[in-house]
Amino acid sequence: MSTKEKRKVLLKLHKQFGHASAERLQKLIQSSGNTDQDCPIILQETIRDCEICQRYSRSKPKPAVGLPLASQYNETVAMDLHELEPGVWYLHIIDHFTRFSAGNIVRTKKPSEIVNSFIHSWISVHGAPKRIYTDNGGEFNNAEIRDMAENFNIETKTTAGYSPWSNGLLERHNMTLTEILLKGMELSRDVYIQPPPEAEGDNVLWKLKKCVYGLADASLYWYNKVKELMLNTGGKMSQMTSFGQDLSSL
Q1: Where along the chain do its domains lie?
Q2: What number of other Cβ atoms are within 10 A of residue 20's Cβ?
Q3: Class of 76-235 per CATH?
Q4: 234-243: b or e for each residue (b if 16 or more CB lie within 10 Å)?
């Protein structure tokens, strides 16, 4: 029997048994004593090409969780900008394996400022990561970021457009960190003994500097809260040592 004739017979059986699956038909054929080696392959192809089965087939279930993006320290680093108030953002960077994070205040979304902040906040401390993971915004998906990545031999990876959940780890930490910073910025001037000399006006940068430089307990409380967040709730980890420097003391 030719391949064409075998395909015709198998298609007839498939329809006769109500578009049965390949597994069920294969068991039926084997129980009849058929030992043709080509039969299973032709049967799979016949059912795969069946238009009615394709029309009524169930969609594949979406995975409930994704595979981890990193298996070691500084393998994948996620990066995002979050706006605190008009004209003021913070660049948030987090290591996907250790959850260690760092940040820096930026006044513009220019690629050159993002590059300088990333080098200062992360590469100068931890070294160049293997991969950076960002959203598809123009502040990250541009020639200057790619040029910096090529110079440091870093792979760049972006999420799909309009899908912040694709970078869920960083977005979740953004929410917590923003809440802590906003609470710290609401503290009154009166709780500080002396503002930093470069402070001018009661704007967001001055308030953030108060959290770092303030001498009263209230300011130190919020500053320590930020440090706790960046060091993770698990305390000091073995991966928090880079180039002989204990990262938990930063």
Answers
A1: 3-56, 76-235
A2: 17
A3: alpha beta
A4: eeebeebeee
